[in-house]
Amino acid sequence: MKSNEFLLVFWKGHKTNELQPSAVMLKRHLKYWHEWVISLAVNDLLASQLRRWDTGGRVLKPDRSIIEGPFKENNELIAGLITIYANDYQEANEIALGCPILDLGGTVEIRMAVSNSLNVISNY
């Protein structure tokens, strides 16, 4: 078993029609996603299943106001996320390079889970 968990956040552009795949491309692309996630699971690299999220959501601002819809200033939306097992960032990067969202112009954000040594919650 790998020693660290990494969060992979999948970002996808949404503003223009040319960024959106055709129905045929989408079907093929979903097949690649399925194959990629299965390969992660078979190799004991998958810490959590891929989950899809709605395209709505809410953003809470510092003044406590609530905005409906995602924060769209960068023209990207979170398309999904998973957690994987890897030894270090280099290995997590190599795993993420196989992510099918890259083929559609999306990006993958990689974050390593921090240890629970601070155990902040137990202090409350």
From TrEMBL:
Domain YCII-related, first and last residues per copy: 14-110
Similarity comment: family membership: Belongs to the YciI family.
Protein name per the record: YciI family protein
Organism from which the protein derives: Mucilaginibacter sabulilitoris
